[in-house]
Amino acid sequence: MKQPIVIVALDVPSLEQAVEMVDALGPNVKHVKVGMELYYASGPAIIETLLRRDLRIFLDLKLHDIPNTVARTVTVLRGLGVDMLNVHCAGGRKMMEAAAEAAGNTLQVIGVTQLTSTDQAALNEEIGIPGTVEAAAVRYARLAKAAGLSGVVCSPLETAVIKENLGSQFLAVTPGIRPQQADDDQKRVTTPRQAADAGSDFLVIGRPITAAPNPRQALEDILKELEGGQ
């Protein structure tokens, strides 16, 4: 089984802190995620800075708007040189098709199925979607593939069923990765090894690395766990 790629989530509020974290992580960091907090604080400058360090970038802005607005936004973001960005599947097929068309052949667009902070009670009672989280994730994944997206963001708990239904080439990008059980806002989580065994292509890992006493060692330990198949 192919080893998944680890994307380190740079969930910090400034360009300076992001650069400090990249330096602290050392040469093993190859892929990073820039989310809303960092991008809204730093703008395109953070993308330019990270590209100068030869890093691959997942821009995690979770676009969700009318198709024309999303298409125009994707065109702008594609010009920054990022490798991957995401949209909310809840925006519908036309919106996702517009995003995929605007991305061209140089940018991977993936769809957010359900946030890993969403449990079944929230899905049913607050969001208003009946059934299980897994069923909702698969339904959105089917819609994303039909719209021409490269894959989806999903919990590692849904990776196996999404791969089974959508095929091994349809990307599964999975946050909610915890080397050990953690008491935080993530509900649907697994260890890196469990996510790899389920077929995840990318593991998005933030706090277990960036909040560790030694971020470089934390990253190295996760990579060793994945390489060793432990």
Put simply, the count of helices is: 11
Reading side by side through the largest sheet, how are the strands ordered? 1-2-3-4-5-6-7-8
Radius of gyration computed on alpha carbons: 17 Å
Q: Low-confidence segments, ≥5 residues, pLDDT <50?
A: 181-185
The CATH superfamily title: Aldolase class I
In whole angstroms, the N-to-C terminal distance is 13 Å
Largest sheet: 8 strands, parallel, barrel
What percentage of residues falls in helices of 4 or more residues? 40-55%
Element order: H for helix, E for strand: EHEHHEHEHEHHEHEHEHH
CATH class: Alpha Beta
Number of strands: 8
Structural class: alpha/beta
Quick structural gist:
This protein has 230 residues and is an alpha/beta fold.
